[in-house]
Design goal:
Blueprint lengths: L18 H4 L6 E6 L14 H9 L5 E2 L4 E2 L4 E3 L10 H17 L3 E6 L5 H12 L3 E5 L19 H7 L4 E6 L4 H10 L2 E4 H6 L4 H8 L4 E7 L21 H14 L1 E8 L9 H21 L1
Parallel strand pairs: 1-4, 1-5, 5-10, 6-7, 6-9, 7-8, 9-10
Antiparallel strand pairs: 2-3
Helix pairs in contact: 2-10, 3-4, 4-5, 9-10
The protein binds manganese (II) ion.
Manganese (II) ion binds next to loops.
């Protein structure tokens, strides 16, 4: 039996439980658990997501049914970032430093949130390491408010802060928007691909339109609520009418095949006690992104 004591948790490999692999500081893939939960407005529990996703990842089949190859991903799972103490800005800086160490070494970073706010320091670190990039933002929400619940460092404002870095954002799966956000996307001609249009599309031409908006290098942020709540019931603000598994993975596969995806975060999973569906879907999604990335490099 494999030991799964919590002290060794961070050392367990994301994908195959190979502890030696998990300690490999030169592994091309680094998984960073970021249990940051501070400004969640509705459902709670996203701080528990990184550990739950890592646990669920142990149950993923070691062969990929789509690419028809063994997973065999070389992954180092890093220790979780301490997120409970310190001011918001301090903790976000801590996250950025951990990300920078991975990205500066040219390794692929897969961050597991935590709430969406963590994307700001992660994008900053990616831009410092790689320069120009586009953020591909999969989400039910635009997260473009200037401030939300009395703070500018909230999950509801994170893409506004990213835009302020001067980084272009392409949003996919959107189906919830406030008047302020709608005004902003009209004024600035922001790239928004509505879930309603994607789900009704009769071809994958929309994927080509997404690709046309992306530069050569891409940072990918996936809010779990971009998916249909049937696949991802455990998320802070579930919205009906989300993307299906096959639609989202088709998009991500094409993006990884045609662009240099330098890092990804998967945020806003909030495990529901008694059903593993949310964390298992999240683990599968994180794995798919790394597999698509590896296939794209070949
Ligand atoms: Mn969202």
């Amino acid at each position: 039996m494999m030991k799964t004591s919590s002290t060794h948790h961070a050392r367990v490999c994301f994908l195959d439980g190979n502890a030696a692999n998990a300690r490999n500081k030169r592994a091309p893939y680094a998984v960073l658990p970021v249990p940051y939960e501070r400004t969640v407005s509705f459902g709670r529990g996203t701080a528990r997501a990184p550990a739950a996703i890592l646990r669920a990842s142990r149950h993923i089949e070691a062969f990929d049914e789509e690419l028809l190859q063994p997973l065999g991903l070389k992954v180092q799972t890093l220790p979780a970032i301490p997120c409970r103490h310190g001011r918001d800005a301090q903790v976000l800086e801590r996250i950025g430093r951990a990300a920078a160490a991975v990205l500066q070494a040219g390794r692929f970073l897969m961050s597991l949130g935590g709430e969406h706010t963590i994307t700001l320091p992660l994008v900053r670190a990616a831009r410092a390491a790689y320069g120009r990039l586009t953020v591909l933002h999969c989400d039910a929400h635009l997260d473009l408010r200037d401030h939300y619940t009395n703070t500018r460092l909230s999950h509801g404002c994170v893409m506004r802060r990213v835009l302020e870095l001067g980084v272009p954002v392409v949003s996919v799966g959107i189906r919830s928007v406030c008047a302020e956000e709608y005004q902003l996307i009209k004024e600035r001609h922001l790239s928004v691909f509505w879930a309603r249009a994607i789900v009704a599309a009769r071809s994958s031409a929309w994927i080509k339109q997404v690709l046309a908006r992306l530069g050569r290098r891409v940072y990918l942020t996936i809010d779990a609520d971009c998916l249909d709540p049937a696949l991802m019931p455990g998320t802070g603000t579930p919205e009906p009418g989300g993307l299906s598994w096959y639609v989202l993975t088709a998009l991500l596969r094409r993006v990884c095949a045609t662009r240099e995806v330098v890092a990804t975060d998967l945020v806003e999973t909030a495990p529901i006690p008694g059903t593993p569906v949310s964390e298992y879907t999240a683990a599968r999604l994180a794995t798919k992104v790394m597999l698509y990335h590896r296939a794209g490099k070949r």
